[in-house]
Design brief:
alpha/beta; 8-stranded mixed β-sheet; two-stranded antiparallel sheet; 21% strand; elongated
Length: 263
Amino acid sequence: MVRAKKFLGQHFLKDKDIARQIVDSLDAATGNILEVGPGTGVLTQFLLQRPENLKLVEIDRESIAFLRTAYPELRESGVANGRETSLRQGDFLEMELDTLFGNGSFSVIGNFPYNISSQIFFKIIKYRDIIPETVGMVQKEVAERMVSLPGKKTYGILSILLQRWYNIEYLFTVDAGVFIPPPKVKSAVIKMTRNDRRDMQCNEDLFVKLVKTIFNQRRKTIRNSIKPLLGDKTFDCAFMNLRPEQLTISQYIDFTNEIEKIL
């Protein structure tokens, strides 16, 4: 059995019923699936029962050796029964994803390591035009931030940047006892589905910078939290005395367009 490595944030799901629920939540209408961090293959075993092309990326060499022993389909890349399967050693965060399935779109699934889950989602945003769907396990607190709405304390950077491009569902909560080793927090399964928005309607780099600058000082009013971005420039508008969590995504887009005029 593969030993969980703390530095990789590994907590292996052992409950097969939950694993099946996660896999069944994936529509995979593109016919292509990428599993990130398969670990011991608890999701993989059910993904291999599906008809879609399946590729797996795993950073842990011990896990790769285990998976190739446990699942003969993964020992060599190729096409069998009309479906392509492959297992690749590598870091998802460092991969170029646009040619992974021959320039085609694909769904992403995984029990995402909690220590890099936000980075995984920001990577998915970068490739949003070829990743229409993601299903994954994350820390419950992160899942709550992902689906949070304006006005709530959990509404923040992750909420805004993800919801701009994806509709996000909180599917169900998972207790710590179904993992080896058990994490110190509860987990949750989320589903992200690409929405109809194709145009940012503002400078995307500035939008991201603005949101991060403001929420990095979220206890302050917007008037004070935006000062690091403005420098010696002055700016005023109707919501400068509000808190960061009170603005909608549309207001942040409008805010970005106004700020761009003076920078």
